[in-house]
Structures
1.
Amino acid sequence: MLPSRSPTPDDAADLRFREQCRRQLARSVETRMKYGFCRVSRPGLDTPTSRVFASTRAYREWCAANLPAYLGYQPAPPE
């Protein structure tokens, strides 16, 4: 016989997550599609102009100068 153990906070979180998954799967596909995506404004990228860059360096410089950091197009910090 295996020894019993008391539930941990991780077990409770796991049970809550599983119950949330069950609730979501009970929804229709249309409802899941409606609420399954997050629309984010991407300033600098969503404008209707097209851009052509002569090099990757020029592209990276444009990204650093024109796009907000939260989009993830900024250069990585030096290590």
2.
Amino acid sequence: MSEHQQYVLEREQIDDLLQKGYKIKKVIESLSGDIVQFEQDSNTEEEPTKEILLILTPNARKYFSVKLIEQAQGNVQL
């Protein structure tokens, strides 16, 4: 798979989780990729639902960074 195809796949995965109401809660950076933890708040007393993505491409790392900044500013736009 080309790097561009990998980026498109990672961007779609990020957008899908954000559209489902998940928020970025934690980022762990490493040389082999960034681990991004998403959480979806539940309206009950149950634990929030968590999803984890491994982001490998530099462009997808930039993309989720922009989404994280928008989230922090309260301007989540997809």
